[in-house]
Structures are given as structure tokens and as C-alpha cells.
Amino acid sequence: MPYKDPSKQKAYQREWQRHSRHLSKGGSRVLHEPVNIKTAIGLLSVLGYLIREVLLSKEGDIYTKARTAGYLVSIGLRAVETADLEARLVDLEEKVFGGEK
After folding, report:
1. Are 73 and 81 in contact (CB under 8 A)?
2. Closest CA to 43 of 54, 51, 35
3. Domain extents for the chain?
């Protein structure tokens, strides 16, 4: 992100480097993608991110990671069922109501 003001540009670069070093040392990551958590698809993307972070984490033993990932997967299965149901409902509404709403 270019800044005209050299001091702002320098501050931005310093913070970016600091954040980059923090992540390379195994620091916490932040979900940067905008996610719509009001839909099942949005929740699935958040769950995928969380499961990946749990499995890549250096903290905890393998049993804790497996238990946590298993729990998140069970939630994900319910979200997949809901997403499928949501898509089927939308298709059904289109067939019944046509293009009008």
C-alpha cells in the first residue's frame, strides 16, 4: 500500500516486517478473507481454516490435536448437511415460485 508521506510509509513497512517475522516464528495467523458467516458455506470456510490451524499448530500433543480436529470435523459435517439442504431449498423455491419473489 503506497503512501505519499514517507513517515507513514516507513511505519507501515516496519509493521509489515514485524508481522512477517512474527508469522515466520510460528505466531498466530489471522483470517484475512472476508467470510459471510451467515451462510453454511461461509461457516465451512472458517471451519476449514480452523482445522488447518489446529493441525499445523506446534502446541499440544497429538491426542489434543486429534480430539480438537475431530470435534471441528463433526461440526463441519453438520454444516455440509445444512449447506446441501440450503441449496436444495433454493432450487425448490426457484421451481415453485419461478423468477418471482
Report:
1. no
2. 35
3. 1-30, 32-101
CB-based burial, 80-98: b 16+ in 10 Å, e otherwise: eeebeeeeeeeeeeeeeee
Question: Which run of H or E residues covers position 78?
Answer: helix 62-97
pTM of the model: 0.49
H/E stretch holding 30 reads none
The pLDDT assigned to 87 comes to 80
Phi, psi angles (nearest 5°) of residue 98 = 70, -135
As given in the structure block, the three cell numbers for residue 91 are: 432450487
Place of cell 461440526: 75
Place of cell 441449496: 87
Rounded distance between C-alpha atoms, residue 26 and residue 84, angstroms: 36
